[in-house]
Amino acid sequence: MVEKLTGAKLNLEWKPASGSFNAAALIQWLARHKRDAFPLSIDCETTSPTFARCYWIQATKFDANERNDVLASTRIPGGTGAALDLGGFGFKVDDPAPGVLVTSLPGKYSGPLKSGDRLIALDGKPLASARQYVELLEKFTEEKPATVTVQRGKERIRVETRITLPRRDSGVSARVQAQYLPAEKEIQIISRAIAEMRVTVAPEWIPATLVWNGLTLENLREAGCWTLAVQKELLRAEKCK
Known about the structure:
Helix content: under 10%
Number of helices: 3
Radius of gyration: 26 Å
Order of helices and strands: HHEEEEEEEHEEEEEEEEE
Strand content: 35-45%
């Protein structure tokens, strides 16, 4: 996952979970990161109307039919989420011991495992560690029967189970990409799956021309919040209520 995040050029900064990184250090770290209310360039993607604000733009109506092939998805795919159908047992990923030590089980557990069991093989292949077990599961992209060898004290138990995958909603995401060009006094907006939006124009950007998906609004002479919508291939703008 770290490789995927850094590959997508997202900033990652590691801090120790304990020791010198306390509440005061966290506040000091946050104080060094300033939020610009009107960055000249913004780019956001969301699948939820609850998280539809992108600095000076807020999507207010979504429409999956408003396609735009220019804007590809920026979503970073996670792991497959594959798991053994053994009842959600707990284990420590950083446990260096061979196999996977079962450290906890959910309440009213009725599966085949017991706390203290150790999974030592999957489909006949030895499990070197819990981390290797997690990495192995992430390679499965479809459900299938599986066999697990469990070490319980001096006894080895063969458990028939399945590799399961979570059901995930592949909903359409909305994305907006915008920039303000000071030399041209122009606000350029490109969006996908957005039918209406609110744009807050900075006072220093006035007067300006606004272009949204190729439709132009000339002589924008008042700063503040504007509601934009497309009606009959025309760009409609009115002050936010």
